[in-house]
């Protein structure tokens, strides 16, 4: 497997847009991450901090609504040339030093092949990567990644204060998440648990080097955030005119579904009815039978496959409206619920 390290202003622009997407569509708020200004000056910063430079983003027309609607399943995000160039120009106004990752590069070259051998031995029927592209970055979460693509390539963004276990975490989750979500209806947090367990408690833990920079994702995102840090994050989001968690909730009103102040006008009448029930029951799940009563005219037409397709279409519409698809979650064996 080929391992490539790459850093440039273009790669940092991609990363900035990715972070802005997670803020704009509500993903970070939903999963317990805390956006903060870069460079970090806070005594209270935690492992779930997400760093973004304090720039004049609204100088780019419709910046936040545009980045929120980018398809987060494509990684790096596919953007218009205009949005990319405008963001790159904005980013070039600050001084970014190329990171020094020589020692970590050497450690990665010996550790990753061992991880791949572990996967071969203990996990069957899995596509192994042919290329790992690692992009060090100043911004974002500790690490982010693409799901392995048809060519076997995986892209990882590694924040410069993180180390080898974050690379391994991204690699494992990239390989496991797609199948776990598609075949087992696993949630985002359930796939994170699987990776955290492999790193901390499986035989893999005995071959990984020590890494004091790493903490498991679930333990960090489920940790309570101090009032001081919440206030700092809210102030930062207001300063850069970004959407805030308090504005990212669903509401059913007058036969229409709203996300914050924005009506979701692309929904069909059946989807509005489904979302209305989901909003009313949130956070409790809407059962499969209840969903069936809403979308099937006759009882003998009930189909789990049709329900699954209906939910997936709804998730796609949410994402195209700039709302994270993860708001609509699966309650395994029961139905679906809205994280609101």
UniProtKB/TrEMBL annotation:
Positions of the OmpR/PhoB-type domain: 237-340
Gene3D superfamilies: Winged helix-like DNA-binding domain superfamily/Winged helix DNA-binding domain
SUPFAM superfamilies to which the protein is assigned, alphabetical: C-terminal effector domain of the bipartite response regulators (SSF46894)
GO terms under biological process: phosphorelay signal transduction system; regulation of DNA-templated transcription
Ranges of the DNA-binding region feature: 237-340
Keyword terms, alphabetized: DNA-binding
Coiled coil: none
Keyword DNA-binding in annotation: yes
Name the UniProt record assigns to this protein: OmpR/PhoB-type domain-containing protein
Lineage, opening ranks: Bacteria, Candidatus Collieribacteriota
